[in-house]
Structure formats: structure tokens, C-alpha cells
Design brief:
The complex is a heterodimer. Chain A is mainly beta. Chain A is built from no helices and eleven strands. Chain A is globular and about 35 Å long. Classes of the chains: A mainly beta, B mainly beta. Chains A and B meet through strand 5, strand 6 and strand 10 of A and strand 4, strand 5, strand 9 and strand 10 of B.
């Protein structure tokens, strides 16, 4: 158990809909990262927040957005969903910012868009 | 371009045999390097990390990796495979992105199968 929690575990929704994925980092960690894992794209970095502020951006679509709240939990919002958005979405956390810090991954949310 | 390449998407070894999973990075400056393991239906677990303090890095579950700058490699090894090692293994590197921030770039993964 990494100490990172993600909810829900599974999500099935229809095209065009909007969903919110939630992540709680390990106690004491200030950074939260979001990743997408799919068969065709592999593991892709989406976005990072550090202590409530956006710190780094990866291959995140404009239909996707995220935020980190004062209690440090984070939410990833996916809107106008397409079939291709079906994937595993992971959250990771680390104590600091910068890739020298170990990232600890949550169990993931499996999103299925039908 | 900065990248991480894992040679061999599938590797099979016999129980008790040497495990060797290959990883090469492409970067003018050696990045931070990591190996993660993913068991079915689980998240990624950190195996080990290279930060330039030592070229041979020991991790959990008997794994170790050696950083070789001249070969831009960070191969993962384990002397004797165990059935519980069957999983997907990811090599990752911390690069400075085009936007000036740091991000982890993952290889495509190697699925390790252990033959009884």
C-alpha cells in the first residue's frame, strides 16, 4: 500500500459525459501528479500540482483539467468524453517537486467510455 | 529528443535464472532514473532510483540496476528469478521538458514471465 488513495476504482460512462477522478496523496506529500495509461499510448504524464499550484504540464488535452485543494487532495476532471479516453488514470504523490523525488502511485481509476 | 527505450516488450526466464531487463535513455545530461514494477490490476511500485550517488543501485525484492553513462543505460537485474517477480516493469527518467519543467518519462514497459 503506497498511501495514495484514488476513487472511484472503476468508472463506466458514455461519450460526451463528464467525470471527476479523485486522489488523496500520502500524508506529508505536497506534489500530486496525474498519469494516463493506455495500451496504445503507454504511460503518459498529464499534469502536476505542488501545494495547490500547477507546476508542470504534459500531454493533457484541453478537455481535461485538474486542481489541488487546500487539504492537498486533487481532482482530475474529464469532459466531452470520447471512446479514446478509456484508460487507467493514475495519481502519484511526492514530498517535493522535481523528478529527484520518488513518486508513489495510487491503485488507479479504470475509466471505460462506451 | 529526450526518451526512454526498453528493449524487449516481453521477457521470459526460468525460475532461478538471471533476470535482465534493458533500459536506455536519450539525453545529453544524465537524468534521474527509476525502475517501477506493476502487478496486475495494481498501481506502480518503485523498485529503485539512481541519483548519481552510486552507479550500482540496490532496490527492493533483490533487484539492482547499474548506471552506465558511456552506454546511456540503466539495466535492471536480479540473480535468481522467483515466480512472484512476474509483472510489468517500467524504466523512467526525469527530464527537463520543452516547457522548462521536470517530468517523468516512462518507457513502454517489459512484461516479465517466469517459467516454472
Amino acid at each position: 500500500d503506497s498511501g495514495v488513495t484514488q476513487t472511484p476504482k472503476h468508472l463506466i460512462t458514455a461519450t460526451g459525459q463528464r467525470v471527476t477522478l479523485r486522489c488523496s496523496p500520502r500524508s506529508g506529500d505536497l506534489s500530486v501528479y496525474w498519469y494516463q495509461q493506455s495500451l496504445d499510448q503507454g504511460l503518459q504524464f498529464l499534469i502536476q500540482y505542488y501545494n495547490g499550484e500547477e507546476r508542470a504540464k504534459g500531454n493533457i488535452l484541453e478537455r481535461f483539467s485538474a486542481q489541488q485543494f487546500p487539504d492537498l487532495h486533487s481532482e482530475l476532471n474529464l469532459s466531452s468524453l470520447e471512446l479514446g479516453d478509456s484508460a487507467l488514470y493514475f495519481c502519484a504523490s511526492s514530498v517535493g517537486t522535481g523528478t529527484g523525488y520518488e513518486q508513489y502511485f495510487g491503485p488507479g481509476t479504470r475509466l471505460t467510455v462506451t | 529528443a529526450q526518451s526512454v527505450t526498453q528493449l524487449g516488450s516481453h521477457v521470459s526466464v526460468s525460475e532461478g535464472a538471471l533476470v535482465l531487463l534493458r533500459c536506455n535513455y536519450s539525453s545529453s545530461v544524465p537524468p534521474y532514473l527509476f525502475w517501477y514494477v506493476q502487478y496486475p490490476n495494481q498501481g506502480l511500485q518503485l523498485l529503485l532510483k539512481y541519483t548519481s550517488a552510486a552507479t550500482l543501485v540496490k532496490g527492493i525484492n533483490g533487484f539492482e540496476a547499474e548506471f552506465k553513462k558511456s552506454e546511456t543505460s540503466f539495466h535492471l537485474t536480479k540473480p535468481s528469478a522467483h515466480m512472484s517477480d512476474a509483472a510489468e516493469y517500467f524504466c523512467a527518467a526525469g527530464f527537463i521538458s520543452n516547457f522548462g519543467n521536470e517530468k517523468l518519462t516512462f518507457g513502454t514497459g517489459t512484461r516479465l514471465t517466469i517459467i516454472p
